[in-house]
Specification:
alpha+beta, 2 domains, disordered N terminus, 10 helices, six-stranded antiparallel beta barrel
Length: 368
């Protein structure tokens, strides 16, 4: 495909000198440049986010189980982000006048469509490679003393539950899908990875909050991967802890995930879970929605979500992180949340430099 200028076209006069032809439909050209810049900017942002997530997922996998494919996917995404930064800078540097711009379009509409297809393919490529095959073994059932009966009726075994995960050292898990079933002392094949999306992040946060609340009440929650146990070291009884913390948090997770265990007679939201749902939503607003925050990077690298291959329950690991719990409700979390990682700063700096160079070149071509 030949590249031709959409704004400037030269011709020969009868005297042999070059003359600049009048611009053609300049407002339409400016609008096309504006739309093109808008599309490429959002594509670049999506690519950078995918590269960051891919790198985060790679970091959570033990070194001896990694291969070159996820790293290759991340590298491709980062290179494409750089290319788009150059394209955006060229569009930015296009002079909005009638005589001096000579930025070739090269079929910009086709190019935009092509880039969109490439981005979709790469995002799917990266997402697929970031999943890790694993085996989750759900442990034995908890003691009947840990059953919870919400105000609306029904009875459920309160989390967390004992279990093991191939790619993790975690042994305490909360169920994400109360409306599905899973069998005790049973292995399940599937994939694992860090929490994805608001609901899973809030569920992981509440799982961590349970351990935080247990420590505050002088209760030790432990598991050997097969059996879960509660050790009372303070004045709070097991029944009180189950009915005010473990049970309501289990219900709050199911409410957030939209998966109430209706098969166990739970037909409506639990009023006792409402405060925990509100805490999780506040935590999302203050901190959880910022994956590049150092606290979130550390938290997500230690929390695993197991997704089975069949139609059975997903589980999220309960990871103790008192620093995250405390920071979720402090003003400093908002400040740290806005701090981008070095890779993003490099991309931003490179794009800014290219834009500046384009502007300087444009100004140098202006007649005095």
């Amino acid at each position: 495909m030949k590249c031709k200028s959409r704004i400037q076209q030269t011709d020969r006069t009868s005297g042999g000198a070059e003359a600049i032809a009048p611009a053609r439909n300049v407002p339409a050209i400016h609008e096309e440049l504006r739309l093109l810049r808008y599309r490429y900017t959002h594509i670049a942002q999506a690519i950078r986010s995918a590269a960051d997530n891919s790198h985060k997922n790679e970091s959570s996998v033990p070194v001896d189980t990694q291969d070159c494919r996820p790293a290759f996917g991340t590298l491709i995404l980062q290179v494409l982000a750089h290319i788009l930064a150059v394209v955006i800078s060229r569009i930015q540097s296009a002079y909005k006048g009638e005589k001096y711009t000579n930025w070739p379009s090269c079929g910009s509409k086709d190019l935009s469509f092509t880039f969109g297809i490439c981005v979709c393919g790469l995002l799917a490529f990266c997402s697929t490679l970031s999943a890790n095959s694993t085996v989750f073994v759900l442990g034995n059932s908890n003691s009947s003393n840990q059953n919870y009966s919400p105000a609306g009726g029904g009875t459920v075994p309160a989390g967390p539950y004992a279990g093991t995960l191939t790619n993790s050292s975690d042994t305490l898990f909360f169920c994400l899908d109360g409306n599905l079933d899973a069998n005790w002392d049973t292995p399940y094949n599937g994939t694992d990875g860090p929490p994805s999306g608001q609901a899973q992040e809030e569920a992981a946060f509440l799982a961590s909050m349970m351990l935080y609340a247990a420590a505050q009440d002088g209760i030790t929650v432990a598991s050997d991967g097969t059996n879960e146990s509660l050790t009372i070291n303070g004045s709070v009884s097991m029944a009180t802890f189950v009915n005010t913390v473990e049970g309501p948090i289990s219900m709050a997770i199911w409410q957030i995930m939209g998966s109430l265990p209706t098969q166990d007679g739970i037909a409506s939201n639990d009023p006792a879970a409402a405060p925990f749902v509100a805490l999780a939503q506040d935590a999302w607003t203050n901190l959880l929605q910022y994956p590049l925050n150092p606290l979130m990077v550390a938290f997500n690298s230690n929390v695993m979500v197991f997704a089975p291959t069949g139609s059975t329950q997903r589980f999220v690991a309960a990871y103790s992180d008192s620093t995250l719990i405390s920071a979720a409700y402090s003003d400093s979390a908002l400040t740290n949340a806005a701090t981008p990682e070095p890779g993003t700063m490099v991309l931003l700096g490179t794009g800014s430099l290219l834009i500046a160079l384009g502007c300087a070149r444009r100004l140098a071509r202006r007649p005095l």
